[in-house]
């Protein structure tokens, strides 16, 4: 893998983590949104933290689409799971959330699993020697 591809993976992790974090900061300032008033979610779109979170998640989605053009989904998703560690650290340090030992253990297991996934190729060879496996026909 090239340096640019590692950079895209890092951007995926950082943007997903901070996008979710900014959304949480914004939602902490909002009243509870219940299922009895689902349209109330549109009212939070004026909060600056929510707006920043949405734009950060748009950056994540852009990197995600780009990465799927050169790597398998089964490589991209696990390779970006280090974001769980970043999320737990931000939640504990900045939001003062209590991260239990069992959550840390789960995060450690996920992170260890990444080591197994990243040892393999980032792109599975499809039939006929092409880069991509054939796209299944979804229509009967």
Please provide a written account of the structure:
With 140 residues, this protein is mostly helical. The protein has one domain. The protein has helices spanning 3-28, 48-68, 73-79, 83-93, 101-118. The chain is globular, with a radius of gyration of 18 Å. The model has no long low-confidence stretch (mean pLDDT 83).
- Sequence stretches where pLDDT stays below 50 over 5 or more residues: none
Strand coverage percent = under 5%
What is the helix/strand order?
A: HHHHH
The geometry reads as globular
Please name the defining characteristics of this protein.
140 residues, mainly alpha
Write a brief structural summary.
The chain has 140 residues and is mainly alpha-helical. The chain has 5 helices and no strands. Helix 1 (3-28) packs antiparallel against helix 2 (48-68), helix 1 packs parallel to helix 4 and helix 3 packs across helix 5.
Please describe the topology of this protein:
Elements: H1 3-28, H2 48-68, H3 73-79, H4 83-93, H5 101-118
């Amino acid at each position: 893998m090239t340096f640019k591809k590692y950079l895209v993976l890092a951007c995926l992790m950082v943007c997903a983590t901070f996008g979710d974090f900014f959304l949480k900061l914004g939602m902490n300032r909002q009243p509870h949104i219940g299922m009895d008033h689902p349209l109330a979610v549109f009212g939070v779109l004026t909060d600056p933290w929510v707006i920043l979170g949405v734009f950060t998640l748009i950056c994540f989605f852009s990197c995600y689409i780009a990465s799927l053009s050169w790597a398998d989904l089964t490589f991209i998703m696990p390779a970006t799971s280090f974001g769980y560690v970043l999320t737990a650290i931000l939640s504990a340090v900045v939001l003062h959330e209590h991260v239990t030992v069992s959550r840390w253990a789960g995060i450690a297991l996920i992170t260890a699993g990444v080591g197994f996934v990243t040892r393999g190729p980032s792109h599975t060879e499809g039939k006929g020697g092409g880069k991509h496996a054939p796209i299944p026909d979804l229509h009967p």
